[in-house]
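Researcher: Structure for this, please.
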Amino acid sequence: MTMIFQKAIFVFGIAISSLVLAVEPDEVLDNPSLEERARQISKDLRCLVCQNESIDESDAALARDLRVLVRDRLQVGDSNEEVLQFVVDRYGEFALLRPRIDGVNYLLWWFGPLFLIFSIITAVTYVRKLRKISKSSNDLSAPLDDEERKKLSEIMGD
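Model: Predicted structure, token format:
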């Protein structure tokens, strides 16, 4: 029984430790409002090493450097947008967890739905052509009229 209990505590400890944010105590700003802004910005920036976590959650060294950079820019007096733009200018839009919908990104955002619509139109057109071909092949089994019989007998040599 104690072995199961120890394993359960171990698994629980691992689960709880994964919920802890990676922000280290030496990174925390003295000004609570600036720290709150830094946390908000950090949640919007992607860890360039982990790629599926924000820099607020990542333990990677580059994520730490970005968190420090964000706090430095806030202490200089930059607004949240200016900090985000600074990081985007330096690392590209890939650094944003939620990419902006503007410019060339419109093409990326709309390509999927437009391709789906194009595929549906193509499929409907193809099915209609198949039905038309099927109908015309069914017409071949219809009885011959007098003119067609005459041509057939000429061809057959009767």
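Researcher: Any notable elements?
Model: Residues 2-95 form a domain with the Helicase, Ruva Protein; domain 3 fold (CATH 1.10.8.640). The mean pLDDT is 81.
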